[in-house]
Amino acid sequence: xxxxxxxxxxxxxxxxxxxxxxxxxxxxxxxxxxxxxxxxxxxxxxxxxxxxxxxxxxxxxxxxxxxxxxxxxxxxxxxxxxxxxxxxxxxxxxxxxxxxxxxxxxxxxxxxxxxxxxxxxxxxxxxxxxxxxxxxxxxxxxxxxxxxxxxxxxxxxxxxxxxxxxxxxxxxxxxxxxxxxxxxxxxxxxxxxxxxxxxxxxxxxxxxxxxxxxxxxxxxxxxxxxxxxxxxxxxxxxxxxxxxxxxxxxxxxxxxxxxxxxxxxxxxxxxxxxxxxxxxxxxxxxxxxxxxxxxxxxxxxxxxxxxxxxxx
Length: 312
Hints:
L-2-Hydroxyisocaproate Dehydrogenase, Chain A, domain 2, globular, 3-stranded antiparallel β-sheet, Rossmann fold, 6-stranded parallel β-sheet, alpha/beta, 10 helices
C-alpha cells in the first residue's frame, strides 16, 4: 500500500493525480487545494473514469485539510501561480515562495517520513527554500527540472531525426532556467551518438529548442505546460515508490559535487525508495563545466531573493 499526496489541483497537479491514478502508481492519491471544491471536483472526475479504464487506485479531493494527507509516502507540491506569457520563472518567486514554504511545512506535520518533490517554479530556488525550511534529510527533498527538460530535449531530437522518442537517451542538467545545459555530447539513439546522425547545426537547434521549450509552450497555451511536467513528476514518483533506482537528472542538493556547494541544481541521480540515493558524476568536459558554473551563478542570484525576502 502506498499513498501520494499532490498539493495543488491546477493543470499540473490534477494531471499528475490523474496519471498516478490511472497508471495505478500508488494505492491512494490525495489531491489537495486551497480553493473550495476544486480538488473534490477534479478527483470525482478522475474516479468517474474508473468504469472504463479499470484502475484500482482511489483518488480523493480535499480542500485545505492536511490531516487527510497523513502518512503520505511522497508529497508532490505543484502549488502556486502558473507562468503567463512574458513572465520568467524568476518573476514567479515573489508569490510562489511563501506558498510552497507553507505547504511543505503543513505536509511534513502529518507525514514526517515523507519524500517531497517540488514541481512549482522557480524549481531550483523553491526546492532550496523547502529544504532549508522543513529540516528533512537532503535525499528526501528534490525538484522536477531535469527529468522534464530532458524529455523536451529528447522530443526535439526525435523530431529532427524522425524517429521514436523512446529510442533516444539524452540529458539536461543545470538550473531550470535559460542557463540549463542539454548534454549534446552524450545524447544517443539506441547507443549511437546523435552527433553522428545529424549536422552540428541541427543538434544545436534541438538543444536550443529544449532550453526555450517551456517558454514556447507558454506562448502557444497562454499558460505553463502541464502534460509533460506532470508525466515527468509521476515518472519520478514511480521510481521512488517501486524502488526502481532509475538514473535521471533532477534538482538535488550539492555539497561539492560538480564543483558546487549549498545549492539545488539539476544533476543525474539514482532515485529509489530513499529518494535521491546517489549523485552520478558525468565527468564533464571543460566546456560543460564552464556552462554549469554559469548556470550556478544564475541559480544563486535567484536564491538571493529568498534571503532578501527573509524567507530563509
